[in-house]
Each structure stands twice: as structure tokens, then as C-alpha cells.
Amino acid sequence: MQAGTANSTLIHGAGGTPPGGHAAPTSHKQTTGWLVMPSVGVLLVWMIVPLAMTLWFAFQRYNMIDPTIRGFAGLSNFQDMVTDPDFWASLKNTLLLLGSVLVITVCLGTLLAVLFNQSFPGRNIARVLAISPFFIMPTVAALVWKNLLLHPIYGVVGVLAQKFGFTPIDFFAQFPLASVIAVVSWEWLPFALLILLTAVQSLDTDQLEAARMDGAGPVAQFFFITLPHLSRAISVVIMIETIFLLGVFAEILVTTNGGPGNASTNLAYLIYSRALLQFDVGAASAGGVVAIVLANIVAFFLVRTVARRLET
Amino acid sequence: MATLSLRNIRKAYGPAEVIKGVDLEIDDREFVVFVGPSGCGKSTLLRMIAGLEPITSGELQIDGVRVNERGPADRGLAMVFQSYALYPHMTVAQNMGFALKLAKVPAAERDRKVREAARILQLEPYLERRPKDLSGGQRQRVAIGRAIVRAPKVFLFDEPLSNLDAALRGQTRIEIARLHEELGATMIYVTHDQIEAMTLADKIVVLQAGRIEQVGSPLELYHHPANMFVAGFIGSPRMNMLPVSVLESTAAGITVSLPSGAALTVPSTGDVAPGTALTLGLRPESLRPDPDGQLAGTVKLVERLGGLTLLHVETEGREDVIVQIEGLSMLNINHPVRLAADAAALHLFDAAGMALPALTRHSLVA
């Protein structure tokens, strides 16, 4: 069905092009509009079909444990959800995770970007090392943190703690969300660093020298010249990270399984557990609809502020 | 109110020395222009005075006080950059008041000073605009305004006009000259444009390869260049250089023979034996077509500029001796022509390129 739609629009689009291809500017605009239809059509189908199915299931009784119970559910899936304490906890965890990681990566990323822009011996190696966590896939990164770094017995932190006479802490059990935040921040800091470093490098050195002549010390230069220059790149980092951080999943699955209890369950993990651990497709779809709404609310504010930044 | 004194200033990047010992005195209220070909070190020298580049050795004094170790903000200087270096996220008023804000000047006084500078530079209607909403000439004025607001002892200009179009450049040049009159400040100005150097300067410093070639007033450099480099660099079109040999040296000057055998007497002195090879410098504007002229040649190219005409004449074994004549001349390509030279405007240079001293100084040059 998908290919058929694309094909028909393609033929339609080709038919709309005037022979010879020498069109006046006005008709040019009209005819080229059809040429983008195939890609728009594919993207539309790509988006509409899953969205429609999610909405459909959200209003159905559909639990794979007992497939005989079917039929229209009305709002009962949503009713169950808002009365479910897990849901509100996961919503809070989602936003907490998003906000914390954003603050950590943007603040540290900005400082590191300024640092890595200075010349010091071994700078290129240091840059590669700082950026490398980004190339490690989330499951592996989570495993490294869980077993090699934070494990109370075998982990580096645990061993060090024992060596200095402290009681090792089982981070993922005692501070589950904070530990997940640490893992995700570690993964995304390189991204922020990379974007912000290129932005710092594009800063006109004349401006910094003019500021020096005007009496600005290193701190004043950072706050009055570098930071305003970075504002655009920072908003891009925030926007892209937000899109990805709303759906953090692998790190939670590998390290805490959303627990203990629901302490580190975010919305994505909650939907997963409803759909594939409890086989309640209807409840999971209702969660999905909420996730879509949430993402759109966040995106609305973000796109508005970022678009305004990018204008200037 | 400021005097500057540069004592054997040197700058080296590793083993490569780019400023090779510069000694210079700059008086109060003087307009000094550093001029030279690109890569001669003029911008580096300016940046060393500004404090943006550390001084490798030597001493820089402002008002008799050594300032080598002081930061750029503590030397009491202000600099106008070639790229203007305006802060893009600040309005014109914020740009101009930034230094005062950092110096914690009260807002009311800051505002008054910014408005005063804006008045001088006719920037009042633009105070709330951002740099990107201004034209090139306005940005240039904001950059100057940012310097004025600080009331510095010395203004430093780093090729401030090179990003402007020709018309605006002429206009801004006049504004800078007016500003110098009005503010009575010491100014140091770097340029590669000799028209800017000639029109603005009280004192021109010609630099080449990190060394000072000559220091003097614009007319002194034009009429009495110390060497061939300065003679060729100052004046447009360039001075023509011809190889000559000495016939005799008398009290009236040195008589030299041209490659064609023609003889010319140049009012210069010097201890030169007959037969010595010298270089004769003739400015294009000191040559004129004359039926009795000593130089015979053929016109190879005619450049008509309207008010002036430039002839490229093949003579004395050279293809491109340039002669500047009035614009209505009827001379055409391939015309035979004889040229006479104004004897007082001739220059002789020895084998090392140094000028032989003229018998009389030009009346405009004290």
C-alpha cells in the first residue's frame, strides 16, 4: 500500500512538469510542488500508520494473555493509567532524567569546550578520549558502568572504596535514577562537547582581543563574549538531546530494569513493561499516546525558542 | 597626552624573528602611520604596543614608564580592529559602553559618555541597533566610538579602512583626520595604503621585514627617500629605476651616463669615483615629453585616467619606464618620444641601495 501511494504520486508529479522544462517562475513554483510529493507521501504514511494504530489500540481492550477479551474500551485504558502510581512516577522520572542530563551535559560541555579550545600538549589525544564515549552503544556503555565501574565488589569504584576503608555503595540499587543519569550524561557529554567545541572555534579571536583591550579578564570574556556566542549552539544541543533523552531505554533495561520498584522507570520503560512484560497492548498504547503528547508539548516550546534563536 | 618610546623592540616566534629591533619615539598628539608591504611586521608591532602580543625583548614605554608587563587594558590604549570586532549580541550603545561597564563606571556616566561619542561620530540614531543591522561604514564608526569612549592615551588603528569600498574609504579617512584634530590624541595607524599614509600621517614609519627603513614626514619620505625600498614604496606610480654609471662628481652634482650614453647631472653629493655603477631614480611625475629631452624612446602603452595619462615608454633598455603627463596629451602607442627630467627630482642610489644625499633639501621639507 505504501509503495502504491508513492508510485501514484510520482507519476502524478512527473505528469505535472511542463514539456521542455522551461516554465515561467510562477508556474514553476506550482509544478515543483508536486515533485516533493513522493517523499512527503512516504513520510506521511510512515508516520500516520503507526500513529493511527497506536491510537486504535489505545481505545481497545487488548491483552495478549487473554485474547478473548476484545472490543472498544472507551477511555478505560487512560483511566487505568492516570490512577496508576507507576505512571506518575515514570513521568516524573522522565522529566528528571531529561532535565538533569541536559543541565550536566550543557554546563560541563561548555566548560570542556572552552578548555579543549586552549592549546596544551596532547590536546588532540585528549579530544579523542573525551569524545569517544559517544561511539559506544548504549547497552555496552550501561554494562561498563554497571559491572566495571559501579559494581560494589568488582567495580573500580567499589575496589577503591574498599581500599580506602569505606563501605562500597551499590549505586544502582541505592541511587538508581541518579546512576542512570550519570550513565546517560556520560554518553551525551561528548555530543554536547563536540557541537560546542566547533562553536567555540568559530568565535572570532578579534572579538576576544577587543574584549581584552576593553579590560575583560578571562571570566568576563567567558560570560560576555564566549557564552553569548555559544547560545545558538547550546539551543541546538538542548533540542537534539531532548529528542533522544525522552526515549532513554537501553541504559535502564541493562542496569536497573526500572527498579527498584519504579524508582528508575521512565515513560519509555513503562510502555515496554506494559506491552512486553504484561502483554497489555491497550495500556501500553495509552502510554504511547501520552508519550506523543508529552514529546509534542516539549517540542513546541523548544522549537519556538530555538527557532527564535536561529533567526538572529 | 601620551608619548611612546620603543627601545630595541624584538619579537620572535621560536627561532623566527619577525621584528628585528625597532627604535622609535612617538611624540604627544602625533599621528604616526606604520606602512609597509604585507608580512613586514607592522601589524605585529602594533599588537605588541597594544599588549596583545608579548614583547620578546626590548622596552616599550608610555609616558616614560615601562609597560612591557602590563596587560592590554592597563596600558591606557584603545584599538580599532580591521574586522571591527564588534560584539554581535550587544547593541551599539552596549558595544561602546562595554569597557566602562567592566570598569564599573556608574550607568548614568556611562550613558553620558556613550552619547557624547555617538554625537561626535553621528551614531545617535543607531544606538539601539545591533551591529548586523548596520552598514560597513557605520560599523567602522562604532568601532572607533568604542575606542573614543575609553578616552585612551593612544589610539591604535589596524588597517581600519581596508574593508570599506573606495568612496567610503576616502570619506572615513577624512573623518579620522578630523577626529585626530578634535581629540588631540596620539594615534598609531597601520596601513598598506600609501594614500592613507601620505594624507593622515605627521610621521610615517616605513617597515620592511621587521626593520624600520625610514622615519619621517610624508613629504620628506617622498622627496628624500633614504633608500631604494622607500623610494619605490612611497609614490604611485612607482619610481622608475635605471642603471647608470658616474662620469664625474662636481660641486654642481654628479653627472651620470645613461645606458644610451646620454648624460644627466643630478644634484646629489657623494664620494663616488668615475665609473661607479649607481641606480638613477626618476619619478613618473618628474618626467615630461620634451623635443630636447635626453631620453629617447617609444610609447608602448597609454593608460588614460582622465585627468592624467600614464605612458609606458621603452627607453634606455627598459620597456616600462612610466611617465605621468596631463590627460589631454595626444601621444599614442608606438609614437617616438623624447623625455626630459626635472633635475631637482632625480635620485641616485649606490650599490647597497642607499640614497646619495641631495645637495639641497626640498623647500617643503624643513
UniProtKB/TrEMBL annotation, chain B:
SMART domains, per the entry = AAA (SM00382)
* DNA damage as UniProt keyword: no
GO MF entries: ATP binding
The highest taxon in the source lineage is Bacteria
Q: Would the keyword Calcium turn up in this protein's UniProt record?
A: no
Question: Transmembrane ranges?
Answer: none
One family name in Pfam for this protein: TOBE_2
- Ranges for domain ABC transporter come to 4-234
Which keywords, in A-to-Z order, does the entry hold?
A: ATP-binding, Nucleotide-binding, Transport
Q: Which family does it belong to?
A: Belongs to the ABC transporter superfamily.
Q: Supply the name of the protein.
A: Sn-glycerol-3-phosphate ABC transporter ATP-binding protein UgpC
